Fold this protein.
Amino acid sequence: MEQPLAFEGSFSTELLQAVGILFITCAAAETVIGLQLIRVLSHPGIANTGILPAISGMDVSVRLAVIRVRVAQIAPSCAPEISRITAKIQNAFGHRNNIAHNFGHDGRSKNHIDLRSLRFNGDGSIQPNRTYDAKQIRTFSFLLQERLKGLDSALGAAGVLKLAELA
């Protein structure tokens, strides 16, 4: 029989599932963002899957920045909306990163996680610690999914063909 991990008894099943769903959602989102980047870089021609090796190691923030810049070239009137959506997607990844790198537990409750921040504010003070419960973490997953749908729609409004249309 397998031994439980040291932290398993410290958190509720619901909280652990919410964190797992967030991580899976973010992993899928990274794939979607990569495909959207291929879509934008291939516009107006056929889908150029040869781009994939060049973008496969790109950080999400870089992929989103390239999408913003390319849309500003393709359809300048759509650039503010794309910038707004990509900023919200980046913010969602910020929550994931904060949870992944600052996950903590004070032992008071199995139904929340404490995030110990070592990030600085503009005035040099350290940002306050945060506490999230399963519902809040699931909301991050849902919002990321909705923002990716918004990016897809906004790219369509900018005249960028879907990958299936590019093939």
